[in-house]
Amino acid sequence: MAREFQRGHKAKISDLTAGTDLYVGVQIAAPGLSFDISCFGLDADERLSDDRYFVFFNQPKSPEESIQLLGAQAGDTESFRVTLDRIPAHIHKLSFTATIDGAGQMSQVGPGWIRIVAGGEEVARYAFTGAEFSTERAVMLGDFYLKDVWRFAAVGQGFDGGLEALLKNFGGEVAEEEAPAQQPPAATPGFAPPAQASAPPAFGAPAAPAPAPAAPAPSPAFGAPPAPAPAPAAPAPPVHAAPTMAAPMAPAPQAPQPPQAPAPAPGPYGQPPQQPQYGQVPGQVPGQTPPHGAPAPYGQPAPGPYGQQPPAYGQQPPYGQAPGQFPQQPGVPQGMPQGAPAGGAGLAAALAPFKETATGVRWAPQNQQLMRVDLAMGGVPVLARQGSMVMYQGKVDFSYKGAGFAGRIVGNATGQEMQLMRCTGRGQVFLAEEGAHLHPIELQGDAICVSAENVLAFDESLQHEVRRIEGHGIPGGALFTMQFQGTGTVVVKTHGIPVVLPVTPTTFADCNAVVAWSAASQVVLSSQVRLRRNAYPGHSGETVNLQFRGAPGNFIVVQPYEV
Known about the structure:
It comes from Streptomyces roseicoloratus. The protein is mostly beta strands and about 575 residues long. It has helices at about 15, 165-170, 345-350, 405-415, 530-535, and strands at about 5, 10, 20-25, 35-40, 55, 65-70, 80-85, 95-100, 110-120, 120-130, 140-145, 150-160, 365, 370-375, 380-385, 390-400, 420-430, 435-450, 455-460, 465-470, 480-495, 500, 505-510, 515-520, 520-525, 545-550, 555-560. It is built from 5 helices and 27 strands. The strands form 3 sheets. The chain has a 15-stranded mixed sheet that branches. Strands 1-10-9-3-7-6 form a 6-stranded mixed sheet, with no helix packed on it.
C-alpha cells in the first residue's frame, strides 16, 4: 500500500522501497491550461550548476541517463525514470516542478499528485489540489535529496513569477528569445524582364542566399551560359571597404591601448634626462596644460570635461554644487556618480540584498539572525519562545503553551523551563531573539541534546524531555539538559558562529560554552577541585567541565561565548 504524504512530510527512500530504479509520475491538469513538467538536478548549494541536469521536453535525459523523461502514461501527465545509484556525486537534489505555459494560476488546478513507483508497485504519493495554492504559476511538487541517504520530501511550494522565478531560485538564467537573424538586404535590382517560372531572371542582382542549404538551381533557358557553381556563402563586405586602384586599404582597427606614461624629456647633449619638477606630469612642458583625461598632479584640481572650466578663485559655485566640482553634464542623472551602471543606484538597488529569501522549505534562514517558518507546509504547529516573533504574514494565531503543573515543577528544579507560545494557521512567521545566530537542525528519527536557554523554536511533533547529566568529583554534582527526538526541526541559537567537534576520549567543554551534543554521547561532569590545591585563595575559573565519550560519529557544538 502506498504511503500518503502531506505537504512538508519527508522520509528515507530506503524506508519506502529497497529499489533504486524508480518511476516518478506527476498528474496535474486544469481546464484551458497547459503545463510544463521538469526535473532540476541541483548541487550541494541547491543551485543548477550544470544545465545538462535540467531535464524537460527539449532535453529529455541527463548525460548518463540517470534521469529520463518518459512522457505521459499510466494516468500521469508526465513521468520520469530515476536511477539513484547512477546519479553523479555532484548532484544532491532532484526537484520535480510544474509551471503553467501561458496565463493562469495554480489555484485553478484540479486534484493531482506526484507518486513514486518501484517494481510496478506504488510506494509513495503526495496528493494536492488547487485549494493549496493561490496566484502561483510555478510549483515545486516534490524533491529527492541526499542527506547521508536519498530521501523524498513533499514540497508543494510555488512562485508567482512562473518559470523565470523558478530558474532564478535555482541560480539559473532565463535565455532571452533570440530575434530571427535579419537577412542582408538584397542589392537594388537593375532593369530586368518579369520573372519566369522555368528559369531564373537573366538580369539583376541575385537575392541573398538563405541560411539553409540552397537547392540546386533550375537549368537556364536555351542559349544562356551555364551558371557557375555557387561559392560558399560569406558576408559581403561593405562597398566602401573594398580596395581600389586609387587608394590602399585602410589598416584594420586595433583595440585601444592603455596610455603609457611618456618618457622624461631628454636633457642637453651629454647630460642625463631631467626629472620632472614637483607637481609636473612626466613628459609635460612646464606651463603646459595636461591633456584631457590625464591624471592631475598631486595638489592640483583635476581638469574638467572638454570645453568646461572650473570656477575661478574666489567665485562661489552654483547652488547644490560642491566647491571644485564641475557642473552636471547633460544626460547624467542627478545624484548618480558618473560611470555607475544603469540600475545600480537608487532605493530598490540598495534594498535588494535584504529581500526575503524564499527557498520553498518549511524553515528558511533569512540571514544569520532571522528565521522564517512557513506554517502552511506540513500543517504542524510550531512552539517558539514567547516574544520571539518579529513579523508574520498571513492568518496566524498565537496562544500560550503551558507546561502543566508537573512540567513547571521540573523546569524550576532543573533550570530547563521554557516559556513557549504556540503558532498555528497558514502563514509565515519570522523569529529572532537579541541578534543571536540561528541554526535549524532537522531530525529524522534521531535525537539531540540542547540546553533550554539555547532553543528558540521547534516543531510540535518533536518529543522533548529533561535529561540529567551525572557528575563526580563534587558531592551530588549534576547538570540537566533538554533532549529532542523524533521527526521535525529544532532551531538552536548561539552567540557567534559555533564549531562542531567530534567526540574523542579526551574531549572536554566548558559547561557555559557547550550548546548541543549528540544524544548517544556519554556525558559526565568533570571537576578539578582538590583540597590541597584549593586550601589557598585563588582558582583558575575552569574547575568544572563536561567530559564527552562515545563511539565515532558523535559530536558536540560549542559557541565562542560563555553564558
